Amino acid sequence: MAQGFAGKRCFLTGAASGIGRSTALRLAAEGAELFLTDRNAEGLAETVAEARALGGLVSAHRVLDIADYDEVAAFGADIHGAHPAMDVVMNIAGVSAWGTVSHLTHRHWESMVAVNLMGPIHVIETFVPPMVFAGNGGHIVNVSSAAGLVALPWHAAYSASKFGLLGVSEVLRFDLARHGIGVSVVVPGAVRTPLVDTVEIAGVDREHPQVRKWVDRFSGHAVTPELVADKMLRGIERNRFLIYTSHDIRALYAFKRLAWWPYSVAMRRVNVIFTRALRPTKTG
After folding, report:
1. Which has the closest alpha carbon to 246: 190, 178, 162?
2. Could you list the active site residues?
3. Reduced to 3 states, what is the DSSP secondary structure of residue 147?
4. Most buried residue among 124, 143, 224, 243 by CB atoms closer than 10 A?
5. Could you tell me which residues are beta bridge partners of residue 186?
6. What is the dihedral of CA 151, 154, 157, 163, to 10 degrees?
7. Average pLDDT for residues 78-99, to the nearest whole number?
8. 37 pairs with which residues across the strands?
9. What would the pLDDT profile of 92-147 be if each residue is shown by its tens digit?
10. Is 207 helix (H, G, I), strand (E, B) or coil?
């Protein structure tokens, strides 16, 4: 991707809003050929219209749930029946829920893994083999999270999916190198998307003034989806494995790797502060 994205066939999930929409519009402006999906029909239609208004080519788009393998495979079959293999595959769609293990339900664990981990796997199963067989190289991008690098409080279910996606990506980075296919993982912290305002916090009243204060503080440190899209595309061009979107996440991950004991003490303390701030309801 060192020569840019003009004329490149790019498949994106999560294109209806946030990082997915910003990335699709940036690619449209750069002259890429887009193949878009999301489960939000209205948002996806808006992205398609905006991309075309920028002069971009949207060759196919479909409303589907990436957690459903059959839906992903059917869309892939239709695309490959009419177009060559993709040049870039971007797994951007995701969901989030926070909570202690005492408050998380089976639904939380299941949905995190189904959408954030199995969803990208369904896309990889469907779109990467044709890239390999075509022999033209390409690039895969998986959006993980800071919660896929470090032990953020109350993120066990979310981290299960995001650490898993990081592991899949690292293996594929080496497995696919001989085919000229690069693999990158985006590890954003807070991003100013609708997910920030709708993330479910199990066992917590989000409308409590104390909770609202901490959510607002979290949002205040969020970067824009446009910034994430820019860093992602530039990271692809440089074939970087880990693509950071803010310096704090890079520093925190270095802290974990280089100073495990101080990191452990700090994270225990952060967990106490987080729990006191969010005031979970008592169980049992």
Report:
1. 190
2. 158
3. helix
4. 143
5. 143, 243
6. -10
7. 96
8. 62
9. 999 999 888 999 999 999 999 999 999 999 999 999 999 999 999 999 999 999 99
10. coil
